[in-house]
Amino acid sequence: MTGAARRKLAAPTLAMLPRIADSLSFLYTEAVRIVQDDTGVCAQVESPRGTDRVYIPTAALACVLLGPGTSITQPAMATIARHGTTVVWTGAGGVRTYSGTVPASLTTAWLEKQVRAWADDKSRLDVAVRMYEARFGLGSAPVGASLAKLRGLEGARIKALYKLLTTKHGIKRFRRNYDPEAWDSQDPVNKALSSANSCMYGVVHAAVLALGCSPALGFIHNGTQMAFVYDVADIYKARVTIPLAFSLHDSANPERDARRRLREDFKAFKLMPKIVADVQSLIDPSNESPAFSDRSSDIVHLWDPQMGALPAGVNYGSESFDSFPGVPDGLDGYDLDDRDP
Asked: Using CB atoms within 10 A of its CB, is residue 28 exposed (0-12), middle (13-18) or buried (19+)?
């Protein structure tokens, strides 16, 4: 079998691709070269024995986090893009997110819902309240509370959680500190928490992009291309990343252990399908189809404020121009594609 035949046989079809909710969270890579060969995408590492290869299940991953020292070839990137897997470029240990890819040909249904909810101050506040209640329980947000009030309540709850976990794990003192410039001097809990949060951001980023939403249109956070990602990721910190980080207070390598444990938690808590469902219910709680497909769509419509969505790829030159002011008589039915050069 020729190489071209193998690549054609391995090309994904829509039925083969898993939904983002079924994905296996994330994969962090560092100091490897990611390439495409005749059978799939693999990570190559040079060793005294030669070149070691580990194949990457790109179609089953929500995102691949590319850390320092990682390079990727164009054919490998093209395969990952066809599978709809998000690629996120990160700093060491997954800390700091520099950029992420956007899967092509996504439906804009959820983006349009997000924009409508974000553009109106009242509906934006309603989403922010739902986000707060998703973190701390239904009814935890006082009726009519402002965002300032919610921020104060959130800060008090997080401080109380830090104090509880500090006592539980016998830690003398803990203060949250995130300083990438002084990374090596931080304690294990802060290192684990920063690393786990960064991985959480990567996975949420992948889910947001796979649904076709904008990561920049946040309802609580603002002014950054990751605003909505931070909004959604905050929902899970008190239940997942913060307890995980405190449990690694005596770890010799808290960043690595945090990533490994977080992958286990994603599977145990079934977080990926929950993230997708939560994003949908936060933006549109009246949505009647929570299992809305997040797969790519090649269907394109034309917008019309009076007639609604119209099919694209249709020549409308044969329609009557009577309703269009300024069009000369005699152009009715004139096909613009048949004009003389």
From this structure: buried
- Measured between alpha carbons, how far is residue 257 from residues 58, 88, 196, 202, 243 in Å? 23, 20, 9, 17, 13
| Measured distance CA(173)–CA(295) in Å, rounded | 47
154 assigned ligand-binding residue: yes
Are 36 and 3 in contact by the 8 Å Cβ rule? The answer is no
Residue 205 annotated in ligand binding = no
**Structural domains for the chain:** 3-100 (3.100.10.20), 109-283 (1.20.120.920), 301-341 (no CATH)
**258-262 contact pairs (CB < 8 A, 24+):** 258/191, 258/192, 258/193, 258/195, 258/196, 258/199, 259/28, 259/93, 259/94, 259/195, 259/196, 259/199, 261/196, 262/25, 262/196, 262/199, 262/200
For 292, the token pair is 């809305």
pLDDT averaged over 10-residue windows placed end to end, the chain, 341 residues: 51 42 67 92 88 88 84 94 82 68 73 95 94 87 86 91 94 82 80 90 82 91 93 93 95 91 80 85 78 47 73 64 50 45 45
Structure tokens at 297: 């769509």
| Pairing mode of beta strands 63-66, 26-29 | parallel
E-assigned strand segments in 267-337? 301-302, 310-311
288 annotated ligand binder:
no
3-state secondary structure of 159: helix
β strands within the chain, DSSP E:
26-29, 33-36, 41-47, 50-55, 63-66, 71-72, 86-90, 97-100, 301-302, 310-311
84 close to 17: Cβ distance less than 8 angstroms? yes
Using DSSP's 3-state secondary structure scheme, residue 201 falls into helix
Q: 164 with 142: CB under 8 angstroms?
A: no
